[in-house]
# Entry
Amino acid sequence: MAALTGRQAQRPRTAEAGPGRSDTAPARPGTHRNQYQARDVQPHVILGARLTLVIIVMGLIVACGSYRPGAAQPASLVTGTVAAGPTTPLERPGVPATSPVRRVAVEALRGNQVMATAYTDKAGRYKLRLQPGTYLIRTQSDKYLSRQASKTVTLSRGQKLTVNLAFDTGIR
# Structure
């Protein structure tokens, strides 16, 4: 056995040497010391970084899921009202002959496919934003004699069109 010189003689030798332990590390019970070397810690750090990256990417995918880069913003607008009338058998001056229809769906159809849906407000108003093209604007209700009111329209880019729809109440 070689003789220990100055500094080496002062350091106690450990009885056990294992991964991450130097031969001069204290071996006393209750002593806390990080026993992992850089090569042992690195896989955990890489795994944590990968997990963090996956979580960030998934969050971005979810946040951007409703964005469709291929679809241009709708450039045309259809507004109007939905009413039901007549409201009385006799027309009276100063009294409206129709009343607004509230919370009814107004749909824009191209062929059999619904392209947009809006719901009327308390005043019976609605607003649909659409791409240029030909649409059937319709609304349906089981409360009136005429169960459906509709009109076919053709929209060009940037056009604003008013389409008022009316249900027949059957009052005569």
